[in-house]
Amino acid sequence: MTADERARSWTGLVIVIVAATVVQTSLMNGIAVANVKPDLMLALVVVLSLRSRWQDMFVANWALGLMKDLTSHTPVGTYGVLFLSAGLLAGAAVRQVFGDHLLVHLACAFVAAAACECAVAVLLMVIHGLPWCGAMMRAALGGAAYTALISPLLAWLMVRPARWLRLPVEARVRNWA
User: Fold this and answer.
1) How far apart are CA 87 and CA 1, in angstroms?
2) What is the dihedral of CA 73, 18, 16, 53, to 10 degrees?
3) Looking at 9-151, which runs of residues are DSSP E strands?
4) pLDDT digit string, tens, across residues 9-46
5) pLDDT tens across the length of the chain (177 residues)
6) Are 70 and 78 in contact (CB under 8 A)?
7) Where are the domains of the chain?
8) CATH assignment of 3-165, given 1.10.3470, 1.25.40, 1.10.1760, 1.10.150?
9) How far apart (Å, rounded) are the C-alpha atoms in residues 110 and 84?
10) CB-based burial of residue 99 (10 Å sphere; 0-12 exposed, 13-18 middle, 19+ buried)?
11) Exposed/middle/buried for residue 161 (C-beta within 10 Å: 0-12, 13-18, 19+)
12) pTM
C-alpha cells in the first residue's frame, strides 16, 4: 500500500469515526428499549477488530475510545483503554482460534460490550462512592446484548462504504448464510 492509499484509508476511517460519534450521541436514544441503547461505537470496534489489520485496528479502536470518552461522563482515557483492550482480545481470539462466522461475531461483540460496560459501571460506582447497583449491571448487560445484535448489521453495512472510502476493512461476510 502506497503512502497516498494509506492516507486515503485513514481519511475514510476518520469520516466513519466522526459519523459513528454523531449517530451515537444523537440518534441512539431514539431506538432505546427500556432505557437500554446499543453502543454503536463499540460495535464498530468489534467490526474493525475482526476485519482489519492489526496496525489499523489498534489506532482506530483507540480513536473510537477517545471519541467515546469525549462524549461521555467517564474520565478521559477510560473508553480508549477499554476499546483498545476489547479490540485486541477479539481480534486475537478470532485470528487464532475461530473462523469468520456470524455466531463468532455475535459472541465477540457481546463479550466485548459486556466487559467494557461492566468495567465502566464498576469504575463509576467506585469513583462516586456508590453502593453496588444491580440496575447498572443489568443495563450494562442489556446494552451488551443490544450491541451484539446490531454489530453484524454494522459489519454488513460497512462492506460497501469500505470500498468507497478505501477503509482498511476486509469485505468477508460470505460465511454468514
Assistant:
1) 23
2) -60
3) none
4) 677 788 888 988 999 888 887 887 877 888 899 999 98
5) 676 666 666 777 888 889 889 998 888 878 878 778 888 999 999 888 887 777 778 888 999 999 999 998 888 889 999 999 998 888 887 777 666 677 888 888 999 999 998 898 888 888 888 777 777 888 888 999 999 998 888 887 776 666 666 666 665 544 444
6) no
7) 3-165
8) 1.10.1760
9) 16
10) exposed
11) middle
12) 0.82
- Please name the amino acid found at residue 106: L
Locate 23 and state its grid cell.
449517530
**Which grid coordinates belong to 59?**
489506532
For the record, the C-alpha cell of 18 comes out as 466522526
